[in-house]
Amino acid sequence: MTRAVLFDLDGTLADTAQDLGGALNFVLRANGLAEKSMDEIRPVASHGANGLLKMGAGITPDHPDHAQWRQTFLDRYEECYADETVLFDGINELLRELDKRGLAWGIITNKPAKFTDKLVPQLGFAVPPAVVISGDTCGEAKPSVKPMLHACGQIGVKPEECVYLGDAERDMQAAKNAGMKAVLVNWGYIAEDDDTEAWLQDVCIDTPLDLLAVL
User: Fold this and answer.
1) pLDDT digits (tens, 9 = 90+) for 74-122
2) pTM for the complete prediction?
3) Of the CATH numbers 3.90.660.10, 1.10.8.100, 3.40.50.1000, 3.50.50.60, which one belongs to the domain with range 4-15+85-214?
4) Could you say which of 10, 19, 167, 171 is catalytic?
5) Is 171 assigned a catalytic role?
6) DSSP reduced 3-state for 148
7) Which site from 136, 139, 166, 204 is most exposed, i.e. has the minimal number of CB atoms within 10 Å?
């Protein structure tokens, strides 16, 4: 029996790509590089600062300038994190229905708490989350199962009583390895060359309200 529905944040609950992309393009401009289009940014928006810097400038964690570039990105994102970010269509309708059914819902994201704690209250959720787990809450982020199990402990449910929605392979890995039902959201930040058929999801859905049939 399902007692809780847990969600990834970026690319699953909220469309954060515009603001993440804005921070990336700020860094690129500051270093004399061409900006990236949203078509290029969206597929990697779920991969955070490291993924965006790699896509935008080929800067990886082993690059000598990575720390500086990453800090510039984070500083800029802290200024623009909520400028254009909105919930995806249908999310609040889904949350209201979950609430009617007596199901708890929560967030498990790899986003650092310094951003999650500020962004979540501004998103206008129709029903407040029962738990919010950030990427640094447990010392390990997805695909680790630690955030998944910690969320369950916080709301008093077993992993097998949970459904987890996400848009990345690490989301599916974390959910399945924790014993949750894994749902891949096709509206998320998925690249054309992502081999989603090789991921571990139990089911894919095209809109938030499609989850109701899964439940």
Assistant:
1) 999 999 999 999 999 999 999 999 999 999 999 999 999 999 999 999 9
2) 0.96
3) 3.40.50.1000
4) 10
5) no
6) helix
7) 139
Burial of 196 (0-12, 13-18, 19+ CB in 10 A): middle
> What are the pLDDT digits (tens) for 161-179?
999 999 999 999 999 999 9
d(CA 57, CA 35): 10
CA dist., res. 81 & res. 84, Å (int):
8
Task: Tell me which of 8, 15, 19, 167 is the catalytic residue.
Answer: 8
Find the radius of gyration of the CA atoms of the chain.
17
Helix or strand holding residue 177 (H, E): helix 169-178
Let me know if 80 is exposed, middle or buried by CB neighbors in 10 A (0-12, 13-18, 19+). Answer: middle
